[in-house]
Amino acid sequence: MVAPLLAAKAYAAVQEAAAGGIAGGAGAAAGPDFGQMVSQVINQTVGDSRAAEAQMTAQVQGKANLIDVVTAISSAQTSLTTMIAVRDQMIASYQQIMNMAI
Which residue has the higher pLDDT, 33 or 5? Predict the structure, then answer.
């Protein structure tokens, strides 16, 4: 159940960055930009997937508990589902911007 905690922390960090950008104006430039945040999420998703694969391999070799494998797979699935949802929102936003009348 680590994934929901990470998601909550990431959400809180984004909310703090957004609040600082609205109130501070120039303070928003000091934080990570959107591209860096997306890159971090992608790297985390890949890391979760690799950890799940490692747990599955260890289970096949008899070196890991089944609960660890299930937890790793669940975490990887949650990360991938979140990343897909973010990707879909980014595409929808891009399409909406492209359809705006100038």
Answer: 33
